[in-house]
Amino acid sequence: MSKTILLTGGCGFIGSAVVRHLIRTTGHRVVNVDKMTYAASPDALEEAWSHPRHVHLKADITDPAAMRDAFATHQPDVVMHLAAESHVDRSIDGPGPFIQTNIVGTYVLLEAARAYRAGLAGERLAGFRFHHVSTDEVFGALEHDDPPFVETTPYDPRSPYSASKAASDHLVRAWHHTFGLPTIVSNTTNNYGPWQFPEKLIPLVTLNALAGQSLPVYGDGSNMRDWLFVDDHAEALVKVLFEGMPGETYAIGARQPRTNLQVVHAICDILDELRPDPAGPRRRLIRFVTDRPGHDFRYEIDPSRSEAALDWRAAHDFKAGLRRTIGWYLDHELWWQAIRSGNYHGQRLGHVTGSQVTTEKAS
């Protein structure tokens, strides 16, 4: 049966992947609530942007009236909450927006959902879910020999970003236990793939390497992350939404840990193969820079419980996913060039491929 999904942050990197997945593989209707901040990209929705089952609602999740109106107007069956400020370096430079969006915004959305659900009955009441999408950074940092994070790992956030996400996770669980709101939390590790904003590690290194610019690596590059291809994560999130149990937590990971230096080396080597640089191998561009404050050493998730509960496993290994990602950036220069030049402000460019832009007519 077709459902109406109220999804926040659907023009962001992970959110847009979820929207594409929903439009392409299901019959569900998506109400995409996105404030359209600097990292939002309507182009990332691809054909979903103009699809009749997709509605974009430009609104701020910290605005109680706007959120109440979104629920009243669109009458969602379930909620997927992905809207968040997520760049750690930005949270260190200015924590305020992270407190507002990640904590206050989640509170406002929970209250709007609670009030809306009070008016539901029958199957719609029984089927209502609030799925909150979070990060493994709330668990703190792992040392070399520590076991990976699992659903029950104690919280130990280290940055303003992870602290704000930890706070939002706690609110979501409190609204379940105190008010009976059927909430579900999922925590994931680092995502990568097409349409990721160029401030993040993989696109930043890829585009700097293409331009022959230095490739900054924090410390000695030994910090380690578990890398999950974004389309695999989108598939898992939809499974959590419809198959997850209220009150439960699902740890979503790919079993693909790499040090930051290994990631940078892999990007250089793939680019050298796909687009050779006459000046020589791109590993020559690597520069080690002063580590950032509070830089967690290692994140890694053991997804065993989620894999079993959801009958899901990440389809892409890191090498295949990285090659696909780099190929995508090579084919979409107009999109990222506009961002890096400062001429992109979340406006729709149309269908962006290579050096051409074609504007798709809305259906």
Distance between the termini: 23 Å
Which assembly state applies to the chains in this document?
Answer: single chain
Q: Which strand order does the major sheet show?
A: 3-2-1-4-5-6-10
User: Would you tell me the overall average pLDDT?
Assistant: 93
The name CATH uses for the topology of the domain at 4-196 and 227-255 and 299-315 is Rossmann fold
Q: Which parts are unreliable, with pLDDT below 50 for 5 consecutive residues or more?
A: 351-363
Which structural class fits the helix and strand makeup? alpha/beta
Overall spatial form = globular
Could you say what the CATH architecture of the domain at 4-196 and 227-255 and 299-315 is? 3-Layer(aba) Sandwich
Strand composition percent:
15-25%
For the record, what CATH class of the domain at 4-196 and 227-255 and 299-315 applies?
Alpha Beta
Q: Mind telling me the CATH superfamily name of the domain at 4-196 and 227-255 and 299-315?
A: NAD(P)-binding Rossmann-like Domain
Number of strands: 14
Counting DSSP H or I runs of 4 or more residues, the number of helices is 12
- Helicity range: 40-55%
Radius of gyration: 20 Å
Q: Summarize the main sheet.
A: 7 strands, parallel
The H/E string reads EHEEHEHHHEHEEHEEHEEHEHHHEE
